[in-house]
Amino acid sequence: MAAAEPGAAPGGGGCAPAGGGSVPVLFCFSVFARPSSVPHGAGYELLIQKFLSLYGDEIDMHRKFVVQLFAEEWSQYIDLPKGFVVNERCKVRLVPLQVQITTLGNLTPSSTVFFCCDMQERFRPAIKYFGDIISVGQRLLQGARLLGIPVIVTEQYPKGLGSTVQEIDLTGAKLVLPKTKFSMVLPEVEAALAEIPGIRSIVLFGVETHVCIQQTALELVGRGLEVHIVADATSSRSMMDRMFALERLARTGIIVTTSEAILLQLVADKEHPKFKEIQNLIKASAPESGLLSKV
Questions:
Q1: 3-state secondary structure of 245
Q2: Among this protein's residues, is 269 annotated catalytic?
Q3: Which end of the chain has the least Cβ crowding within 10 Å, N or C?
Q4: Tell me: the pLDDT tens digits for 282-292?
């Protein structure tokens, strides 16, 4: 979701600080109104996060929104005043603007990070076309190294499921993290992304499409990032689970694409200094696995 910056507006700025702890807030969206609370002194960003946690399934991530505060002095909602913090019980609402954001899907190396999700040894016998997605995933990581794109790798409960398969070369990866959460959006990952200036796009691949890939993609979009899922480098135990996950994600505005499209979009020009090397990677063409026929 892309939310509008709060603009200056008269009134509704709250009362004098009432100390620490949490403050009750009524969060309104569409026909819904849900009471919750936020820490005393919470501002715009925390309010947005709370709206996402309460209404994530109902919010169209590709709309612009404005947060409004109910002002007693006007007996109506006003745009959230600049610098507003929650000091007392209040009522806020999230209002969609009429303009819809078009997801163009442009990629540049300087604003892109690759996410490699749970390509682990114990998944080998269970995941459909696992050998093929390993091959494509390795090609993507080679491309990331050539283009200087940061790579973040996770491993789901490696104590039980093993490490990343040996065919995947993790040389130069920015992070390789164990996890138990299905989504890759761990605190360490969020901290690493915050350290990289200008990040706009995430290229995501691995397993399983309908679990870790899907949950990661939705969390990233909820944080305002554009997500590209590489269809020929992601799979599941069941092709039906994979197919419906990709369809669901595409409907939310997430871009479902292919490894060749990703790599060529990143170089963009035959005159790019790394074009020949990227072209050589692509010439080792993706296996005819049937993965793309089941997107």
A1: helix
A2: no
A3: C
A4: 887 656 666 66
